[in-house]
Each structure stands twice: as structure tokens, then as C-alpha cells.
Amino acid sequence: MQSAYSLPDVPHKQAQQTGLQVAAHFNLAADASAEQLRALPADGFWPLDRPLALGPVAISGDAVLPRPMLDTFMAGKQHRVPLMIGSNIDEASVLDYFGVDARSVLQQLRSKSRLSYRLLKWLYDIHDDSLLGRAVARDMAFTVMPLLVAKSQHSIGMPAWRYWFDYVSGNARHLYQHSTWH
To answer: Could you tell me the CA-to-CA distances from 26 to 29, 30, 35, 41 in Å, in that order?
Structure first.
């Protein structure tokens, strides 16, 4: 499992409603055929913003994923198979997609709870708010989920390995200032 978000799954009915809105956006009827849907230009989907975009999360409540993923793992109902799960070092590269400014979040935290802010600076030993915000966001959104899932896998007697991918080729390091992107 790669880069599992801590964002909640989208319920199946909500995903269906969004699908109908997207079809209408592309001037298709609610009962559009699979052929009509396949004929849509792929580039037309990139610029879609909310509410037409579900975001990069799983859809639960159907035959594929009957219950939300995290609920399944926390209840110990997942498949009994070995699991490898992890994330990339710069998962915070997706903050812009979600409209999150890491520095602003840290500044809000500093004004509301100086103790929490100081604790984060001490734990991470990062003194630039922008970089600290990226590290905290990465861990809250991407590092905690693999930890919880791995612990759940261990609780049912199955092995789980966590990884943290940080490789960037020497020729591309100037492009990836904070290491491996999401």
C-alpha cells in the first residue's frame, strides 16, 4: 500500500451523486453509456475542482470496499496476508492540491497553543515554520495511517513492513527540493 491518506473514504452514494454531476458537466445524461463515458477526453478531468472532484480517496459502501478501509483494519476484519505499507519522504508535496499553506497552519498553532508549537519544534528539531509545517502535515496525513494499519495487521498475527521512500536520482535532485514527492 503506497501513500495511504488519513482522509476518510467517500461513501458510495456520495460518489454516485458526484458522478452524476460530472456527467452533467460534460453534457451527458444520467444514464450515459460506458461507451459515452470512455469517449470523454481525459484532459477534461484535470481541471475539475470540488464539488466535481472526489479527491484522492477510496470509495466505500460497494462490493469492492463494503466498509471504510480504516474501520475494516481497526476491527481486525482485513485479509490475513502479509502487508507492505509506507509513504514518500515529501508527501507534503500535495499540500497545494488541498489548499494548505504549511507555514500558515504553524503560525495559527503558535498563536493558539504556544506549548504545542514549542513541543513540535522540539520533537522535529526543525526551526523554519514552512519546513516544520511540511513535516507535521506529512506525518499527520501520511505517516500515521501506515503505522495504524501495520499495527492492526500485527494484531491479527500477520506481518507488516513499513517503508519510507526517499530516493531521488542525482540528476533530478534540483527538481525535488524536499526529496521524493507524493
So the answer is: 9, 11, 14, 10
